[in-house]
């Protein structure tokens, strides 16, 4: 069976984009897959590129629990898959080093995360941010994963992983690495409260696992035009309607659309309807999430069991790769 692998960074709580784009489809696949063919991890090493001060590592650690609790709240069956913290399987950093030594520097300068930051502030770019795609390639190629559920922003990274796999396979004249494919959702991106890609760094998130008050505040901040309650509204261009359409059933969407078109229905009421629907739809996941967040030692235990299993596989694979590089086996 083809292996599936995905990771979410621990740079904040999981938002609706992460959940609809990656968590729900991955849980669905992982729970159907055969034992040990799904790898789901928390990319805490990748999260380090986001901080500029070692004091902030605490935030990464705390958010690791939030991401883990979210996966479990959405029903991830940990018997079936390998569920771990990236930093607990450090073999991946060794593989990343090998890739670093062969991947052309010039090509990495074209990676969009680096280019974007370069335009804003060159001084703030760490070597970690620059080589970010290499570590991601190692995450994937270490386990020979083929199916990678991600959002559209990660496509270039998957392409780099494919390129590295090709390069090595040609050099050793063997299919040492499987070429991975991205698995994208139809909606490509979930948009945030400002109509741009929902992202932890943009403060435009709908965080379904935040408190009722915070969630309500986030929903109230959804950008709208300035039409009055009485005026007719366009359901096709409004972000409240857009978010509601992502999660509500068709009949409910149609009812809200009609209210928009008819007029006499304000954005405030629409926001309240969205808020209430989110609370209703995700009530069981929210309950499980809050319960897991009270049991951090259980989360630590689950993640370390997953890491132990992943480490075994990574150990075998890395030894095989080392052999091709004329190095000794891991001592
Ligand atoms: P963020 O971009 O908010 O920091 P991550 O980088 O940790 O989130 O993303 C984890 C996964 O979720 C990635 O595969 C990413 O492409 C996906 N993702 C992030 N934001 C969205 C979004 N708005 N819609 C769909 N998928 C998303
Ligand atoms: N780079 C991804 C992100 O920012 C997280 C990630 C790290 C990942 N390694 C991965 C995703 C491997 C898929 C496969 O969201």
Describe the structure.
With 331 residues, the protein is mainly α. The protein folds into two domains: 4-190 and 295-324, HUPs (Rossmann fold); 212-285, Tyrosyl-Transfer RNA Synthetase. It has helices spanning 16-32, 44-47, 57-73, 91-102, 105-108, 112-120, 127-130, 132-141, 155-172, 212-220, 239-247, 250-262, 267-281, 283-293, 296-324, and strands at residues 4-9, 38-43, 82-85, 147-149, 181-183. Strand 1 (4-9), helix 1 and strand 2 form a beta-alpha-beta unit. The longest helix has 29 residues, at 296-324. The two termini are 31 Å apart. It binds adenosine-5'-diphosphate (ADP) and tryptophan. Residues 8-9, 11, 17-18, 21-22, 150-151, 153-154, 189-190, 197-201 line the site of adenosine-5'-diphosphate.
């Amino acid at each position: 069976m083809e292996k599936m692998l995905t990771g979410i960074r621990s740079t904040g709580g999981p938002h609706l984009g992460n959940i609809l784009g990656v968590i729900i489809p991955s849980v669905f696949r992982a729970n159907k897959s055969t034992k040990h063919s799904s790898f789901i991890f928390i990319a805490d090493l990748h999260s380090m590129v986001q901080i500029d001060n070692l004091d902030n590592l605490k935030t990464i650690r705390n958010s690791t629990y939030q991401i883990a609790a979210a996966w479990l709240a959405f029903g991830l069956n940990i018997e079936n898959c390998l569920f771990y913290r990236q930093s607990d399987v450090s073999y991946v950093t060794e593989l990343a080093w090998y890739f670093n030594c062969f991947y052309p520097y010039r090509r990495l300068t074209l990676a969009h995360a680096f280019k974007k930051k370069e335009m804003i502030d060159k001084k703030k770019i760490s070597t970690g941010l620059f080589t970010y795609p290499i570590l991601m390639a190692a995450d994937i190629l270490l386990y020979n994963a083929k199916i990678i559920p991600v959002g559209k922003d990660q496509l270039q990274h998957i392409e780099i992983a494919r390129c590295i796999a090709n390069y090595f396979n040609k050099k050793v004249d063997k299919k040492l690495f499987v070429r991975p494919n991205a698995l994208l959702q139809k909606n490509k991106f979930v948009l945030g409260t400002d109509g741009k890609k929902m992202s932890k760094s943009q403060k435009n998130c709908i965080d379904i696992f935040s408190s009722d008050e915070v969630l309500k505040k986030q929903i109230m901040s959804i950008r709208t035009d300035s039409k009055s309650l009485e005026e007719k509204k366009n359901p096709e261009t409004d972000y409240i309607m857009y978010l509601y359409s992502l999660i509500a059933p068709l009949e409910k969407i149609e009812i809200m659309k009609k209210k928009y078109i008819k007029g006499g229905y304000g954005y405030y009421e629409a926001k309240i309807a969205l808020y209430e629907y989110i609370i209703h739809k995700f009530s069981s996941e929210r309950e499980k999430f809050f319960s897991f967040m009270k049991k951090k030692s259980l989360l630590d235990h689950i993640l370390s069991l997953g890491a132990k299993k992943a480490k075994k596989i990574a150990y075998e694979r890395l030894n095989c790769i080392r052999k091709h590089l004329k190095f000794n086996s891991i001592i």
